[in-house]
């Protein structure tokens, strides 16, 4: 295997590390000829130095996650946060450990790799906001959706009632219907599927009304419980909230500029670190996260990024990379 890219990750990449922070590394490799020919070219492996996997990481612990280039490109096309962070880590030399010419070529062609498909970013932000009951507007949207669903037969499919739902939820900011590109894991061609979305949670139109209503009821119950805890400053995972804030900032920058800055821009970095260390009142964090999520939603709608990455170019590039590995191995065997 050939290392294409390796960098420090996590808080060291974001600029939010403290003396207690552990070391995280991400590595992308080009598989060997044997792995390519035997169909083992897609993989993801994790190694760590921690003896007790249940214990919390310390500054002495080192984690390294390795992706094959094929697996990495799949995650990148899905808009996964980890893959996008690794791509833009290139412009922060302090964290870069190794860079291969092939990775430099990918980075130069990053405009072909990017899209406004930031669902991974946005989904994480919304899930954290739901977990902690960020403002009542989202809770109200969920409550309204539940009332609408109560008027539909349990055994009907969401798609059969969708036109009525759209009419009943008209004007609701946190309700929408989207067609999403799905990439099957079995290697089949991507296809599009329609989802009904409420406060960032997606529900396929092929699901039954009963299943969907039960799922949305759980969201509503979760809002109430977490909101009460938050007001009492209990049960708050400050680190998870700091991640949501960081991801909101990254997603907005990506959608607005086609770029993500590392380390994080100073004011965002300070805010993330303050939240991570529990230095700010929850109400203040709650309000700012709400505003950041609204901006992400607006950025997604107005972004000049393409709707989809250039999948044809990516497939061609990956095919060439794998083919060259096999040909080079063959030439070495023949010359030997």
Question: Topology of this structure?
Answer:
Blueprint: E1 2-9, H1 11-14, E2 23-30, H2 33-37, E3 44-48, E4 62-68, H3 69-77, H4 81-88, E5 96-99, H5 101-108, H6 110-113, H7 119-131, H8 136-150, H9 158-168, E6 175-182, E7 191-198, E8 201-204, H10 209-231, H11 238-257, H12 266-276, H13 282-302, H14 311-335
Parallel strand pairs: 2-4
Antiparallel strand pairs: 1-2, 1-5, 3-4, 6-7, 7-8
Helix pairs in contact: 3-4, 7-11, 7-13, 8-10, 11-12, 11-13
General description of the model:
The protein is an alpha+beta fold. The chain has helices at residues 11-14, 33-37, 69-77, 81-88, 101-108, 110-113, 119-131, 136-150, 158-168, 209-231, 238-257, 266-276, 282-302, 311-335; strands spanning 2-9, 23-30, 44-48, 62-68, 96-99, 175-182, 191-198, 201-204. The chain has 14 helices and eight strands. The longest helix is centred in the C-terminal third of the chain and has 25 residues, at 311-335. It is globular. It starts with a strand and ends with a helix.
Notable characteristics:
globular; five-stranded mixed β-sheet; three-stranded antiparallel β-sheet; alpha+beta; 336 residues
């Amino acid at each position: 295997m050939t290392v294409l890219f390796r960098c420090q990750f996590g808080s060291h990449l974001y600029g939010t590390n403290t003396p207690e922070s552990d070391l995280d590394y991400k590595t992308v490799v080009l598989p060997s000829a044997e792995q390519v020919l035997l169909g083992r070219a897609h993989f993801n492996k994790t190694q760590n130095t921690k003896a007790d996997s249940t214990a919390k990481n310390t500054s002495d612990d080192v984690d390294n996650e390795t992706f094959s280039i094929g697996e990495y490109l799949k995650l990148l096309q899905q808009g996964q946060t980890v893959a996008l962070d690794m791509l833009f880590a290139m412009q922060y030399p302090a964290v870069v450990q190794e860079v291969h010419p092939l990775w430099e070529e990918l980075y130069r062609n990053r405009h072909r790799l990017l899209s406004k498909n930031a669902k991974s970013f946005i989904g994480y932000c919304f899930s954290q906001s739901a977990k902690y009951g960020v403002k009542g507007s989202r809770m109200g949207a969920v409550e309204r959706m539940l009332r609408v669903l109560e008027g539909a037969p349990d055994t009907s499919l969401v798609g059969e009632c969708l036109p009525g739902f759209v009419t009943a939820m008209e004007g609701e900011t946190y309700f929408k219907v989207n067609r999403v590109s799905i990439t099957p894991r079995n290697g089949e061609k991507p296809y599009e599927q329609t989802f009904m979305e409420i406060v960032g949670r997606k529900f396929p139109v092929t699901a039954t009304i009963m299943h969907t209503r039960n799922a949305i009821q759980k969201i509503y119950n979760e809002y109430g419980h977490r909101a009460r805890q938050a007001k009492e400053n209990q049960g708050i995972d400050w680190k998870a909230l700091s991640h949501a804030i960081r991801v909101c900032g990254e997603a907005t920058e990506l959608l607005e500029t086609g770029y993500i800055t590392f380390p994080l821009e100073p004011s965002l970095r300070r805010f993330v670190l303050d939240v991570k260390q529990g230095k700010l009142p929850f109400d203040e964090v709650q309000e700012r996260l709400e505003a950041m999520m609204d901006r992400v939603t607006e950025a997604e709608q107005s972004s000049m990024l393409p709707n989809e990455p250039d999948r044809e170019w990516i497939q061609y590039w990956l095919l060439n990379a794998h083919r060259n590995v096999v040909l080079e191995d063959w030439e070495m065997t023949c010359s030997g």
